[in-house]
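Example 3.
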Amino acid sequence: MQFVLLIVAVVVVVWMVGAYNGLIALKNQTVNAWKQIDVQLKRRHDLIPNLVNTVKGSMEFEKETLDAVVSARSRAMQGGGGVKETAAAEGALSGALGKLFVVMENYPDLKSSQNVRDLQEELSSTENKIAFARQLYNDVATKYNTKQMQFPTNLVAGMAKATPAELWEIEDASERAVPQVDLSLGKKPPAA
Amino acid sequence: MTEALNLFEQQARNRRQTVAWLVLFILFFAWIGFGGDAVLYFGSVDEAGAAHYTVPFIGLGATLVAALIAWTSYKGGAKRVLWSAGARELTAPGTHEEKQLLNVVEEMAIAAGLPMPKVYVVEDHDPNAFATGTGPETACIAVTSGLLTTLNREELQGVIGHEMSHVRNLDVRLMTLIAALAGAVVLLSDGLGRFFRGGGGRMIGGRGGGRGKGGAGAIALVILVLWVITLILAPIIVRLMAMAVSRNREYLADATGAELTRNPLALAGALQKIESAAAPTTSIKRGTAHLCVADPLGRKVNLKEGFLANVFGTHPPMAVRIARLKGMGFQQAKAAGGLPSA
């Protein structure tokens, strides 16, 4: 009888260790995925002044659009808030950038400049990287959240100090529309 | 959750099959070696029933060689594949297209949550791409220059997403290993075949026939026949197995690739363009065909469905792949509310 109890105890302990480690692994993955987003957001913040300086001369008449981008950037850079605040600020920045790209369509000579084309590729790629990093973060965070709520893993969730991770929701309708904007990358430029 | 389970199942399956291929490969070489020894052993039995050939040198040698080949294939297979395709690593992008390629690969690496793979370009006008390496840390993705000029950014992303799923599912490890091992089997078979045509066979045959006595001689003959048959069939069987491994994994890579980009229609468009380009990718050799996103040899058999295509194609029929991706795109649009529900 004691033998059976011992086996049961061992099984329970082994399971607890496994479940605990699983939760910790998911927690670290969530944190890492968030760092990925952070890296890309910083990259975007760094790229924007370049773009603004390059197009400023040719786009005198679009001062509002440029100002909107600059102020959205500085607001986004203040940071400090949680996932929701960051998401909102960065969403606004994406929207402002999207508008700038649309307006830039009206300046053919600007668009044909190699420098601007490279910058635009860098920025739209960063935009994509943010989106994909967010996709990964949301997937991992959802898995983590589900795991800590499910029975019986939820029994060790307290021990692993697991708390639900906040998802990065896309609320802004204008941001949703950004990927739809054709940045002329759909068409191949004439061979260089 | 089911998606994650599928991924782990897929990885586990690929790990198992990698081990199975290594074991089978070494067993094959061992049989070729020890089989040869057996023929010599029974052939050397003299009148008194004593064998003169007692130490199986060939078998021991062949097994050792096989283990060495397997090990170097596992370690250096990726390098050999890239070298045979004439791929150059893209470290300092010169053109706009190359910068875009690096960006797209990094985007897909982020989406898959994997480290950034090395990127290679193959100078070839035919659009194609392949991935190789022993795992996510050593993965390499190669595309032809034709792919860069033919596809737009979204389509390129679709193709890279497909290759990135091969990396994530550990398909690349298995398929690169198969490429190297299949090469070694073909080489052994060709080499021994030439040896026998060149008179080496008479030596063994003469010995077996002359000295062998009764039962021993018959056993030697049976083993010899079996031995020659395996040697002839091995390259064909290996190639068929490689094709089966590849075919099964293409649909899955299409699906998981679309999951990464969330844009199945882009990959469908890319496949359509690749198919209509249709010219064979000359820089990619037969042995590495199963690594590519689309069959580089432009074989007709890959266009059809049915038994023949199932046995001899390295890739599922293009039309079916495109149709499945379009189906995914339709489901996605419906879920997003872009379409009236049917």
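The radius of gyration of chain B is 24 Å. Residues 2-76+181-244 of chain B form one domain.
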